[in-house]
Amino acid sequence: MKQIDNYDFRGKKAIVRVDFNVPLNENFEITDDTRIRRAMPTLKKVLEGGGSVIIMSHLGRPKKVDPKYSLKYIVDRVSECLGVPVKFAEDCQKAKAQAEALKPGEALLLENLRYYAEEEGKPRGLAEDASEEEKKAAKKAVKESQKDFVKTLASYADCYINDAFGTAHRAHGSTALIAEYFPDDKMFGYLMEGEIKAIDNVLKNAKRPFTAIIGGSKVSSKLAVLKNLVTKVDNLIIGGGMGYTFIKAEGGKIGNSLHEDDLIPDALEIMKIAKEHGVNLSLSVQTRVADDFSNDANVQVVPSHEIPDGWQGMDAGQKSIDNWKKIILESKTVLWNGPVGVFEMPNFAKGTLQIAEALAEATEKGAYTLVGGGDSVAAVNQMGYADKVSYVSTGGGAMLEAIEGKVLPGIAAIRGE
Ligand code: AMP
Questions:
Q1: Is 226 within 8 Å of 236 (Cβ atoms)?
Q2: pLDDT tens, 160-190?
Q3: How would you classify residue 123: left for phi > 0, otherwise alpha for psi between -120 and 50, otherwise beta?
Q4: Pair 252, 304: CB distance under 8 Å
Q5: Ligand 1 centroid to 314 CA: how many Å?
Q6: Which residues lie across from 15 on neighbouring strands?
Q7: pTM of whole model > 0.90?
Q8: Which of 94, 87, 86 is CA-nearest to residue 116?
Q9: How does pLDDT run across 295-307, given as a tens digit for each residue?
């Protein structure tokens, strides 16, 4: 496999899949350019190495050509960050001449790939009452035309770089299929390399004790994560809304707390597997409960297994946090996914804040700490701890699938798996 650090870009054109799916306000101004900035090391490496770049991305979820989702709005910011004026191709499928004209050190941004159904390879515009046969035929047709779509993109360049971790769990044209046109000239960008290393640091090479903290709202959305991790970790901390399904499964009284009765058998199974593997599964022992799902609700602190009727668990109590902090500070590897309370409400953010603090302290003591996927990433960013942990993942869904143990198509395509 080729590596971006050793590749000779002199005189080469690199087509680079990035994730420039940035938030825009109603005036089409970028409200957070993190994703653009994170792709810069890769793009600059190609330009400084004497190559030129053809940058491709999606923006939002357009189902047809729709100016609301045009990447033209971000050209200026990309130019500013890259330090060269970036050219723009208004149709990603008609950019051959512009790509050919690129000189070393120049950059071209292609219009939103998802203007074409072929990027995702899913049929569009099917009638709601379409028959199964019609659906099948439409799917076949888009898969067929997808080949030409990808071939056209590939024809613009000499090498392919995937630096879009946020879409690595999708087998789309630009994230996976295109790689086959570059059997000897495909590689990960720096952002992807960083994410893959972070995943390997926890899932393959974890130093022990290894602790996972899984929080968030629902067991159903994290079931595969829990099942994959329960045999790999030494400590499994389950907090947040999803913890109450486990507490109920243990026979606890959870009042009006969030829970999923149909997942009680799964919760019991996870607890059984943990026991069989000698894994310390740690649930909340004390909860801050409220009489309403609101920041201004009345609050009391009760044992997590004795929540009164009419009250619901909103945040971890101090006793839970103290237990979890002790576990975190004794760990050499920590993976955190999901807040342990309704952290969006200031009165119920304390538990999540203290988890972020504990991770920062563990990191300082030499542990490897990864914050991956979803709202825990938002929490560490919001609370100012992003640069105090070892790594904060940029890919929500992709990181979640990685910690479920799935092979991500965007990674497999480069590795040639
Ligand atoms: P997830 O996307 O599954 O990681 O869930 C994140 C969401 O879980 C956040 O919006 C939190 O507010 C929510 N959450 C965490 N703890 C609780 C709780 N005790 N009750 C309800 N929602 C919670």
A1: yes
A2: 999 999 999 999 999 999 999 999 999 999 9
A3: beta
A4: yes
A5: 9
A6: 54, 160
A7: yes
A8: 94
A9: 999 999 999 999 9
